[in-house]
Structure formats: structure tokens, C-alpha cells
């Protein structure tokens, strides 16, 4: 199982990106605001069409030539800003996500599985709009996990989460990669990206600046150019932390 994204050119925000990934990897997409992270994820999942140039391939098949049902079977997708669904319960919201899944993955057991993964069972009877932003983010992530697809694509999965749940979600995504999924996520927290990801794709003004292992991508020169910061890293057995200083 492999991914190849090549020569993507759709807008001034996302002009050209090329990289490969494989099953069992957690790939972090990083970059400053407006660098093209969300555009890249929507291109990968076939939502940004037609591309002016380039292709996205999975197991040598073009994602852009797959049917909508084939893409649903391939991707679990968490958008940056999920659509509002009115004053419905969390349970009904999750059940609505089962509709488009294959029958084998659309039962009550699947809903129970993801509710347990995200520890949201207690939220099921509550109205979705009444939950906090962080709680809603966990609900939307649970919906993205319905179907247990082989490729999980998340746009800022830790947005609005407290520190405890940021670590829980990142550890969960890491476990999916360790068990054979391809996980691709746009991330703002570089410390979390360095700690949990196998590979980082650094975007700058819509173009690929660097791609590789975290230690290689998060170099002093790359951070200065992409984020206008000077970085000091604290490294322990438990993880890493970034202490940034503004350059301008």
C-alpha cells in the first residue's frame, strides 16, 4: 500500500507537492497558516477536483478516478471545520455516519467501537451543539473512524482539545499507524508532530519545502524560513518540547 502525490497545482495556495507514504506510517502535514495544508488534504481525498496537473495514487490506482463509494471505503476523513448538523444527539449524528458504509461495517457494533476508542459513550444521548468545542472535536473524530478504513486523513485532529486529550488522540492515531493504517494529519503543534509522526511534509506558501523524518525536516533553517522562529528543543525519554523565539 502506497501513496504518491505529484505535481498538484490547483490554486495559488497549493501549487506543487510530491511525496510518497506507505501503510504503517503516521505522516504529519505542517506549515504556517495559509501554507496549503487543508488544500493538500482535500486534494488527497479527491475533493479538490479537477487538479490542473498531477495525480494522487493508492496502490497504483488513481484516487481521482475512484467512485465516491470507493473513496468512502478507502478514507476516514476529519475536516478542519465539519458541517453543522442542527440540534441532534451525538448518537444520531454518529448513526448518520453509518449510512454510506458497507453493510459489514455499518452496524451498532461499529458505533460502539468508536465510542469506546474516544471515550465518548457518556455523550451519546446529549445534543451535539451543547458540547464544548473540544468535546465536539472528539465526536467528529469518532465519526471519521466509522468503517475502519485503511487510510485516515485528519485536518487538525487536536484542535480545541486540552493537553490530556491531545496526547490521547495523538497516541490513538499513532496506534492506528502501528497496526497498519496510513495516517495523514495536518498538525500545528510541532512538538506533537516530532514526537508521534514517522514523516513530516513541510509546506511553505503552497510548495513543498521539506519531506522526511522529523529531525531532518524540523531544522533550524526550515523553521526560520517557514515560521520565522528560532527553535530550542528540549528532549527527554517521554518526548520533545519546542521553545520558539520570534525572528521578526
Automatic annotation (TrEMBL):
Keyword Metal-binding in annotation:
no
Going by the UniProt record, its keywords in alphabetical order are: ATP-binding, Nucleotide-binding, Translocase, Transport
Q: Does the keyword Hydrolase apply?
A: no
Where, if anywhere, are coiled coils annotated? Answer: none
Q: Which PROSITE patterns match?
A: ABC_TRANSPORTER_2
Instruction: Tell me the InterPro entries matching this sequence.
Output: AAA+_ATPase (IPR003593), ABC_transporter-like_ATP-bd (IPR003439), P-loop_NTPase (IPR027417)
Molecular function per GO: ATP binding; ATP hydrolysis activity
For the ABC transporter domain, which residue ranges apply?
3-230
What this protein is reported to do is described as: Part of the ABC transporter complex HmuTUV involved in hemin import. Responsible for energy coupling to the transport system.
Protein name (database record): Iron ABC transporter
Amino acid at each position: 500500500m502506497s501513496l504518491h502525490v505529484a505535481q498538484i497545482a490547483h490554486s495559488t495556495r497549493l501549487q506543487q507537492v510530491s511525496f510518497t507514504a506507505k501503510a504503517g506510517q503516521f505522516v504529519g502535514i505542517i506549515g504556517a497558516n495559509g501554507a496549503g495544508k487543508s488544500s493538500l488534504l482535500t486534494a488527497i481525498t479527491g475533493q479538490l477536483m479537477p487538479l490542473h496537473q498531477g495525480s494522487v495514487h493508492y496502490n497504483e490506482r488513481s484516487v481521482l478516478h475512484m467512485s465516491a463509494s470507493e473513496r468512502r471505503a478507502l478514507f476516514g476523513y476529519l475536516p478542519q471545520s465539519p458541517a453543522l448538523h442542527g440540534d441532534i444527539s451525538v448518537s444520531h449524528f454518529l448513526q448518520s455516519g453509518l449510512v454510506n458504509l458497507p453493510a459489514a461495517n455499518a452496524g451498532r457494533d461499529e458505533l460502539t467501537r468508536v465510542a469506546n476508542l474516544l471515550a465518548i459513550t457518556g455523550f451519546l444521548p446529549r445534543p451535539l451543539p451543547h458540547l464544548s468545542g473540544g468535546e465536539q472535536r472528539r465526536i467528529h473524530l469518532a465519526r471519521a473512524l466509522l468503517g475502519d478504513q485503511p487510510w485516515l486523513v485528519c485536518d487538525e485532529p487536536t484542535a480545541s482539545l486540552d493537553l490530556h486529550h491531545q496526547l490521547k488522540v495523538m497516541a490513538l492515531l499513532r496506534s492506528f499507524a502501528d497496526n497498519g493504517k496510513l495516517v495523514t494529519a495536518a498538525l500545528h503543534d510541532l512538538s506533537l508532530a516530532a514526537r508521534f509522526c514517522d514523516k513530516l511534509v513541510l509546506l511553505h506558501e503552497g510548495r513543498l519545502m521539506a519531506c522526511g523524518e522529523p529531525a531532518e525536516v524540523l531544522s533550524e533553517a526550515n523553521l526560520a524560513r517557514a515560521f520565522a522562529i528560532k527553535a530550542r528543543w528540549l528532549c527527554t525519554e517521554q518526548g520533545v518540547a519546542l521553545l520558539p523565539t520570534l525572528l521578526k
